[in-house]
Amino acid sequence: MAAEGGGKEMNEIKTQFTTREGLYKLLSHSEYSRPNRVPFNSQGSNPVRVSFVNVNDQSGNGDRLCFNVGRELYFYIYKGVRKAADLSKPIDKRIYKGTQPTCHDFNHLTATAESVSLLVGFSAGQVQLIDPIKKETSKLFNEERLIDKSRVTCVKWVPGSESLFLVAHSSGNMYLYNVEHTCGTTAPHYQLLKQGESFAVHTCKSKSTRNPLLKWTVGEGALNEFAFSPDGKFLACVSQDGFLRVFNFDSVELHGTMKSYFGGLLCVCWSPDGKYIVTGGEDDLVTVWSFLDCRVIARGHGHKSWVSVVAFDPYTTSVEESDPMEFSGSDEDFQDLHFGRDRANSTQSRLSKRNSTDSRPVSVTYRFGSVGQDTQLCLWDLTEDILFPHQPLSRARTHTNVMNATSPPAGSGGTNPGSNGNSITTPGNSVPPPLPRSNSLPHSAVSNAGSKSSVMDGAIASGVSKFATLSLHDRKERHHEKDHKRNHSMGHISSKSSDKLNLVTKTKTDPAKTLGTPLCPRMEDVPLLEPLICKKIAHERLTVLIFLEDCIVTACQEGFICTWARPGKVGLLSSQNQANSPSGTVV
């Protein structure tokens, strides 16, 4: 890792970093781990994962934290930036024999101070439903491994549902379960419900209703992660065959696909407004894909090894309704205008105004982050000069740390995921305010001629009658996506891939034939983002990145869960820490 300035500095672990919104600081006293604080020997173990839930506790300590380390699972009160972690008093601790927890997810809809529903997936294929507050184990699914014998890679509650959950396996299959139903004493029999390119969906054929309700077979190789769209209507899946596939979840229709530059895709996330999807994987890149246009709009290169987690930061994603052309004042004033003001619960509604009929220009900057096996944290800004490259640039600001962009004029198009409109975002119909190019390398204009219009067919909206009986349309407001789960955890790859991990053998998905197509544009055909910051923050590979309102949470394979206070959110805890900690922290 040696580079200019000396290799030693490059290998130092950073405890703070600065972005334009201010200083982020590691709170050493807010570190969570196993009670003995001994680094975990992670050789051969499944990745450490973290899940959060808020139980609306009247005391103000409503956040609860769950994490797995090896064969162990811990459940703590999470005190964040407010108080130091007390590792001597976990609410619940479980040690498993013969299998290891691989992933987990809370039901945010049903969580109370007295009870929470936590799903835990395991390396041998089972899924357990537990209540770590009541210390109860209510149900075990796929207990006899009759449904699937492979490792569980991702488990999530269906947004807005108290009983439905989705489980992905390294076999490449996904299963829809209902907690109220049993799994039966024999292997399930299936009948085909729907089939498409590289996917098939089956229903469970039995006299009485049993689990699984549905079986999805997606792509080739392991299905590494999936994520529901913010409105819960769409499902993004990433697989070891290097493909992102986006489905309409209710109608079981394929909406669009994307292929990695090479190797498998390991992680996926949605922007707060559901317009963009970011993936990461074995090509060391982050890739931004437009849901509306079904095409790659940017790639980001900053990691030196596989990207294990990507996540949007809804608290720093900023939306400005004022006309940036009318702004006058210092760059500091401009930064204050853009950042630290919006809350995540208002970000989505503010983003939706870009599609409204209001004639006032709206500028948006999306913030997302990534962590990887190179032990580095990268933060990225996605601005509208990248989102809409056809708009002419004029009077670009020279301050490289300030980003500002504008959306196309209201009424020029745009549909929300799940809508039935035939319009799509059509940037470039008017001369925009100044657009900076501060986080992108020079790139050629992206041709839009070959991309498909993202028009939702009437058939997709109508749904499938058999599947509609599952009452997925009755979902309530979606819960905030908290955790991101991947399954690949080994090794470092060079810039040249042997493509051995591309398990696709079909002609249509031959990597040599997808490169240079809309499925997988060449590197020179799309903007290449540079990270705002790229910092080494751990000794072992990073497996967790979660954005909370007052902090960022990361975790590494040694089993240490770290809290990074956002600018201005350090509070009293930081003062206490500084009094007790040695000087000379690395900046």
UniProtKB/TrEMBL annotation:
It is found in: Cytoplasm; Nucleus. WD repeats lie at residues 258-290. It comes from the Eukaryota. Residues 417-426 have a biased composition (Low complexity). Keywords: Acetylation, Cytoplasm, Nucleus, Phosphoprotein, Repeat, WD repeat. Pfam families: WD40 (PF00400). Coiled coil: none annotated. PROSITE patterns: WD_REPEATS_2 (PS50082), WD_REPEATS_REGION (PS50294). Residues 437-453 have a biased composition (Polar residues). Residues 476-489 have a biased composition (Basic residues). The keyword Nucleus applies. InterPro entries: WD40/YVTN_repeat-like_dom_sf, WD40_repeat_dom_sf, WD40_rpt, WD_repeat_creC_regulators. Residues 402-453, 475-495 are annotated as: Disordered. Interacts with USP12; promotes translocation of USP12/WDR20 to the plasma membrane. Component of the USP12/WDR20/WDR48 deubiquitinating complex. Interacts with USP46; contributes to the cytoplasmic localization of the USP46/WDR20 complex. Component of the USP12/DMWD/WDR48 deubiquitinating complex. This is WD repeat-containing protein 20. It comes from Chaetorhynchus papuensis (pygmy drongo).
